[in-house]
C-alpha cells in the first residue's frame, strides 16, 4: 500500500464524514473496538448503497474497501481510486484486487469487505470465502460492523437509500480471529474459518439490532 493510497483513504474519510452527517443522522456505537493500529478487516453487512461511504465516514481509521468494478464508471473511477478504494472483478479470482487488499493489510491498514458480495438483506446469511482467505492469510483480526438504516420506513426517494435525515446506526463489534491459530490455509481450514466468521457476524448483527431496537 502506498502512502498516496493511505492519504487518499484519509481524504475519503473526511469526505464521507461531511456527506454522511449532512444527509443522514449517523449514530456510531463501539468505534473504540477498532484496534488503533495494525491490520484490521471490517466486515460490513450490505443492505443500502450508503453502507460503504457511511462506514468510511464514521470509522476511526481510514478504510480501503473492496468495491465491485461496476461502480467505477465515468468520473467515479478516478475518484474512488484516488480515495484509496480497491476495484474488484467479482466474476473471477481477481489477482490484482487480491494483491492490493493483502498489501493494505501487510502495511497495517484497514480493509473493508462486504462478505455477502452484493447488496441484499444485509443479514450475513451467505458469506463468500474471500473474507476468510484475507483473514487467515494476513492474520488480521475481523471487526464486524452492522449498518442499520431505515430500510422499511416510508419516505425513501431512492429505494436503495434510507430516507434523508433519518437515523442510521453503525455498530462496531469486538475484533476476533478467523483462523484456528494453526496458520493452515487449506480448503478445509478456509471452510471452517468461513463458518466461524458467519456465526460471529450473525451474532453481532443480532446484538446490534437488540441494542438499537432496529
UniProtKB/TrEMBL annotation:
One of its GO terms (biological process) is phosphatidic acid biosynthetic process. Coiled coil: none annotated. Keywords: Acyltransferase, Transferase. This is 1-acyl-sn-glycerol-3-phosphate acyltransferase. SUPFAM superfamilies: Glycerol-3-phosphate (1)-acyltransferase. InterPro entries: Plipid/glycerol_acylTrfase. GO terms for cellular component: plasma membrane.
